[in-house]
């Protein structure tokens, strides 16, 4: 609530769909908002940074039904603004380009409520750009016209001056559904536009499922119909449309474009893998099957008196340092001991806490760690790990006469997935498994292997995870040669490339 008692309304553009095209200002205002009134065509993650107390109000279309009436949206804006709230009115693309932002600003002015406008990346420019089509080009277009197909239905049919548009010396960009395509082409050609002028339609521009069709003004409607192009889509008419096939195609060319990949690892660890997959063009679904639950959190742990401390996962490292901190200790508590990490991820987590591990085996399994420790004299060892872990390491150390204390730092529990998340993961092109627990909990969440789509390919991080898949009657389609996230991504890429080559050969 502001000092004056009157709030402020921000008319904010959220861009065309790619979350990376939200402006810094938009993210800042979303994070500070008391109320957010949002539309349908905003990036899926746009609201992730909102405060938990913020009131989020959806004012877009329900399915194919009607939107909330504009008067009702106006009323909500005025009400929340008058109540002293910081209100973000979040719209797809740019608020002042076919977004009714101008109308809303006038209503606010009338009501005496201060407003600000935050421009966004408009879909009419961004969707062509991601399709490999610049809306202007030195030699081919020196002007652009942005045209709506969603004009006020109350207006007479003649609201668009078709002969003038046909004569426009530059690129025409239409914001509208695909239904009107035949009519538009007809009118432009009747107005004198060349039937063989290049034209394109970009569906779901800037999103992982983007598709683009390039044809001529005369053939575009038919081609779009044959390709089953659906809204939202942008139609563009002009010589610049030919540039896509002259080498400017890029977005749809990324190696995993058009593929959905489910990431089943714990949410806290999923973002790195998901980000890499998105970079490569995939739609990454974060559908965590598991969650890490620290055990005895808050109970101090004292590692003094141990001459060897073994860590078997990055999660274990995190939990260990929290338990040290609970007793007022830090990395120096490990000063006297040899510190062993099972693999590079665990080693990295230790380094992040200021400890350089003394021992990291070549292969990232318990047996390899036992080997790597073979020549070390051990009197008292601390094995800090997950609750349901194999006993290979403690048993081997005991066999060598060491006194071993095993501390269960955390357990792996099932994460809750919504029905929609489960359905999306089960139908994905790829499902990635980064541990045996992801296999077990994912299949439990789905209610069995039958739920997994017949065309879905299963990717395993290594032999232990693959064995768990086989125990459940599933054969992994892909197994990583290197048992870490980079190795898993490499294996998935190779599989996608060979399948794309095979289906290309089939089509040829
Ligand atoms: N203010 C928005 C436009 C709103 S009108 C902007 O500046 O982008 C809605 C129309 O925008 C849709 O019918 C469609 O033609 C277009 N549109 C919005 N998002 C799109 C996307 N990701 N890809 C293609 N067209 C899109």
TrEMBL record:
<feature type="domain" description="Tetrapyrrole methylase">
    <location>
        <begin position="8"/>
        <end position="220"/>
    </location>
</feature>
<dbReference type="Pfam" id="PF02602">
    <property type="entry name" value="HEM4"/>
</dbReference>
<dbReference type="GO" id="GO:0004851">
    <property type="term" value="F:uroporphyrin-III C-methyltransferase activity"/>
</dbReference>
<dbReference type="InterPro" id="IPR036108">
    <property type="entry name" value="4pyrrol_syn_uPrphyn_synt_sf"/>
</dbReference>
<keyword id="KW-0456">Lyase</keyword>
<dbReference type="InterPro" id="IPR014777">
    <property type="entry name" value="4pyrrole_Mease_sub1"/>
</dbReference>
<keyword id="KW-0489">Methyltransferase</keyword>
<dbReference type="InterPro" id="IPR014776">
    <property type="entry name" value="4pyrrole_Mease_sub2"/>
</dbReference>
<keyword id="KW-0627">Porphyrin biosynthesis</keyword>
<dbReference type="GO" id="GO:0004852">
    <property type="term" value="F:uroporphyrinogen-III synthase activity"/>
</dbReference>
<dbReference type="InterPro" id="IPR000878">
    <property type="entry name" value="4pyrrol_Mease"/>
</dbReference>
<dbReference type="InterPro" id="IPR006366">
    <property type="entry name" value="CobA/CysG_C"/>
</dbReference>
<dbReference type="InterPro" id="IPR035996">
    <property type="entry name" value="4pyrrol_Methylase_sf"/>
</dbReference>
<dbReference type="GO" id="GO:0032259">
    <property type="term" value="P:methylation"/>
</dbReference>
<keyword id="KW-0808">Transferase</keyword>
<dbReference type="InterPro" id="IPR050161">
    <property type="entry name" value="Siro_Cobalamin_biosynth"/>
</dbReference>
<protein>
    <recommendedName>
        <fullName>uroporphyrinogen-III C-methyltransferase</fullName>
        <ecNumber>2.1.1.107</ecNumber>
    </recommendedName>
</protein>
<dbReference type="Pfam" id="PF00590">
    <property type="entry name" value="TP_methylase"/>
</dbReference>
<dbReference type="InterPro" id="IPR003754">
    <property type="entry name" value="4pyrrol_synth_uPrphyn_synth"/>
</dbReference>
<dbReference type="InterPro" id="IPR003043">
    <property type="entry name" value="Uropor_MeTrfase_CS"/>
</dbReference>
<dbReference type="GO" id="GO:0019354">
    <property type="term" value="P:siroheme biosynthetic process"/>
</dbReference>
<comment type="similarity">
    <text>Belongs to the precorrin methyltransferase family.</text>
</comment>
<feature type="domain" description="Tetrapyrrole biosynthesis uroporphyrinogen III synthase">
    <location>
        <begin position="273"/>
        <end position="489"/>
    </location>
</feature>
<keyword id="KW-0949">S-adenosyl-L-methionine</keyword>
């Amino acid at each position: 609530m502001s000092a004056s008692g009157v709030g402020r309304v921000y008319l904010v553009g959220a861009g065309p769909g790619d979350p990376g095209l939200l402006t810094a200002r938009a993210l800042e205002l979303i994070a500070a908002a008391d109320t957010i009134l949002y539309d349908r065509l905003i990036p899926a993650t746009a609201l992730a940074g909102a405060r938990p107390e913020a009131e989020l109000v959806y004012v877009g279309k329900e399915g194919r039904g009607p939107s909330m009436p504009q008067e009702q949206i106006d009323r909500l804006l005025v009400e929340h603004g008058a109540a002293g709230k910081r209100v973000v009115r979040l719209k797809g693309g740019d608020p002042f380009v076919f977004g009714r932002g101008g109308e809303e600003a006038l209503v606010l002015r009338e009501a005496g409520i201060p407003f600000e406008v935050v421009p966004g990346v408009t879909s009419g420019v961004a969707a062509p750009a991601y399709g490999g089509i610049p809306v202007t080009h030195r030699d081919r277009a020196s002007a652009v016209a942005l045209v709506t197909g969603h004009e006020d239905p109350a207006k007479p049919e003649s609201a668009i001056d078709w002969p003038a548009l046909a004569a426009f010396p530059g690129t025409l960009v239409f914001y509208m559904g695909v239904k009107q395509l035949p009519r538009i082409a007809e009118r432009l050609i009747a107005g004198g536009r060349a039937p063989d002028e290049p034209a394109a339609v970009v569906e779901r521009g800037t999103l992982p499922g983007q598709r683009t069709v390039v044809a001529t003004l005369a053939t575009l409607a038919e081609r779009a119909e044959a390709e089953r192009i659906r809204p939202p889509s942008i139609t563009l008419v002009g010589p610049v449309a030919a540039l896509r096939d002259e080498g400017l195609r890029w977005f749809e060319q990324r190696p995993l474009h058009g593929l959905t990949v489910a990431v089943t690892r714990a949410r806290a660890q999923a973002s790195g893998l998901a980000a890499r997959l998105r970079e490569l063009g995939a739609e990454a679904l974060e559908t965590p099957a598991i969650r890490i639950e620290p055990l005895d959190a808050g109970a101090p742990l004292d590692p003094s008196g141990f001459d060897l401390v073994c860590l078997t996962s990055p999660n274990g490292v995190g939990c260990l340092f929290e338990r040290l901190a609970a007793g007022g200790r830090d990395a120096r508590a490990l000063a006297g001991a040899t510190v062993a990490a099972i693999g590079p991820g665990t080693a990295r987590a230790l380094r992040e806490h200021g400890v350089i591990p003394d021992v990291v085996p070549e292969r990232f399994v318990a047996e390899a760690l036992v080997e790597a420790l073979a020549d070390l004299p051990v009197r008292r060892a601390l094995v800090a790990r997950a609750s349901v872990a194999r006993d290979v390491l403690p048993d081997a150390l005991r066999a060598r006469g060491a006194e071993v204390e095993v501390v269960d730092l955390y357990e792996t529990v099932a994460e809750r997935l919504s029905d929609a998340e489960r359905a999306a993961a089960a139908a994905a092109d790829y499902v990635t498994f980064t541990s045996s627990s992801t296999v077990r909990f994912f299949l439990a969440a789905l209610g069995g292997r039958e739920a997994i789509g017949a065309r879905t390919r299963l990717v395993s991080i290594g032999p232990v995870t693959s064995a768990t898949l086989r125990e459940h009657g599933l054969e992994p389609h892909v197994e990583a040669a290197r048992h870490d996230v980079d190795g898993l991504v490499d294996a998935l890429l190779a599989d996608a490339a060979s399948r794309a080559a095979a289906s290309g050969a089939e089509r040829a």
